[in-house]
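Preliminary data (for renewal application), S-adenosyl-L-homocysteine complex.
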Amino acid sequence: MNFYDSEKMSDLLKPHGYQLDNNEDNADLIVLNTCHIREKAVEKTYSELGRIRDKIKLRKEKTGKKSIVAVAGCVAQAQGKEIMKRSPWVDIVVGPQSYQNLPELISKVDPVKNNKYIDIEFPTIPKFDHLDCHISDRSPSAFLTIQEGCDKFCTFCVVPYTRGAEYSRPLTSIIDEAKKLVDSGVKEITLLGQNVNAWNAVGKDKNIWGLGRLIEELAKIKDLKFIRYTTSHPLDMDIELIEAHRDIDKLMPYLHLPVQSGSDKVLKMMNRKHTSAEYIKVIDKIRDYNPKIAISGDFIIGFPGETDKDHQATLNLIKEINYSQAYSFKYSSRPGTPAVVFFNHVDENIKNSRLQEVQDLLRLQQMEFNKQFINSTQKVLVLKNGKKNGQYLGRSPFNQSIYFYSDNNLIGSTIDINVTEAFQNSLTGVIKPNKNI
Ligand code: SAH
Ligand code: SF4
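Predicted structure:
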């Protein structure tokens, strides 16, 4: 979502004379878009701010010029004034629900007066109403935020506090943006939300639509070839969405459905509101409707009170589901969340060894999943050049990276690739020979 927000900020600032510069030393404006989900991400914000001061800001000031430094994103939202205190060279702090005000805030910064601005409001008029700007420089695959915030309040998570209450963007605003993206050359759209499948809004028939209906509507956009969505919550996987995975060809056979833990005791402490059996039931149902679907997930390792038995339950659940790929993180204590004051925080060494075990198992499953594709033909969207000369990187329907070579510029096209080799994180292949030649 930060990636999407960054692209939006860049679109917003273009009419004000700014353009993206790959060399940060030249930048008149540096926007650091930050994440607060785990402590490590927050630490990175402050070390990056120190680097920006030493490498860019001070050096530029020696030549009599000033660059403006803005901190955006969820660290900005959560820490506000604290950022100005710890890093007084920051000019602007702007939260994820108010970055539409960035152009105005920038215009107010006065290099002589050294004034500072903080905007971490949750405005009553949703920011999307102000973000209807010209779209440019998108890759063939783009993100589109349709839902933000969360009302579920898992005890480990900062999202309800930093991104605010659950909000679904209206249908017309989503369709308009999707059409604009497609007109600018985009072939694949990933719909985004912290709980994307909780999206609901008034549909064309005046009934309330869920994500399945939205995807059906988006699939009508002729030149949009691939649709994805992330991240979902198990409790919001309704039958319409499950049916969409059977019925809508443009919806890719990939589902990222976090469970966090395989232990019902831990799930309860996490306030996940579902058991491991309920999660497995949802996955079974999805697989009934689309047997080939690739399943991904998220795991938190070492939540307070997690015992060896709970950890074993997580390993068992992973074995039962058999993931195509999944993310796992050590539990990170987040200020202001209920779990901070829970007893029995797990020792760091134990967390590390459990994480290792989970990741080894997930890696094994990912490798096995990828291996099945050797000698198959995959319809691949070509995303960009690879690192090597003539090499291209594309994405398979199952969300795998596929590398192949071509003498022609194929970026943005859909092409059949015969898979030759499988690795942990990618596949390699060759373009399927055209029978007519
Ligand atoms: N809404 C989604 C997840 C959004 S947050 C869901 O409910 O599943 C993205 C991921 O970050 C989570 O799935 C979780 O695995 C991880 N995460 C969130 N808070 C965390 C914390 N305090 N420590 C470690 N990982 C965390
Ligand atoms: Fe965070 Fe997801 Fe739980 Fe919401 S449902 S609080 S976003 S982990």
